[in-house]
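This section describes the prediction task in plain terms. A model, or a person checking by hand, is given the sequence of a single protein chain and must write out its three-dimensional structure as a string of tokens. No templates, partner chains or ligands are provided. The sample shown here is typical of the held-out split.
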Amino acid sequence: MEQLDNNTLILKVKPILAHRLMMFILGLIVLLFIVSLCAPYSINLTCDRYQSDITYNIKCQFLKRHLWGLINQKREIVASSYQLSIEEVYLGSSDTPNYDVILLADNEKIKITRFGKFTSDNNLWKKQSEQINKFIHRDDLHLEVGKDNSSIIFDYFSLMFMLAVIYIIILGTKINLNCILSKESNTLSIHRYNSLTRIVKEINFNEIEKLVVEENNDIEGSTSRIVFCLKFKENIPLTYWTDSYDGKDNIAKHINQFLS
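The expected answer:
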């Protein structure tokens, strides 16, 4: 609401429900973007057994890809003994544990990844830890384990795209309301518009008998609308029953004060 001077009053009203829904959708898009950004794109652990002099050593390569696969974290480990273990980790004051997948290479501990208790990673890494531990005690020459999250990241982007489409549809179709009262021209201008359409109605102050807030109560709830009652013409609603504008009583009060 903006009063430029004693002769002009401008009311700018936005639909509160549409605005809140847009903020909620925008928050979901940002959240999904951050999750897709921080989640590992893929995790791969490749191990090969080779003979060095008279002993067999195992060479492992750990490759972790971040930032939608654009950044690679690569490390090679050569050791005579390996073990993949899963350790409980408690974060802060939480009673629900997370789990760290740890690769023990000789005396070195290398963290592979972390997952929550109720995720699908739980069974996956338990099975893969058994695979590695069996590989250590057998004569197999090659082993490859890991997890590819590319399909999940793609699902995040698909969901973000759908939410963005919904956001654009709401942005393009939600009805904004501008009401301009001018004592100099003795007119009231009502502008109802969105990105696609604009409807403008002008009323002379002399035609206005009164401004009322009508209420309607039914089984679906209570709704209201602001109506200009004209002396010789059909009444003109400023807002409609289905409008989600907030503070209709306050809007009517300011208009009545300006017209008096």
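For orientation: The first helix runs from residue 16 to 38.
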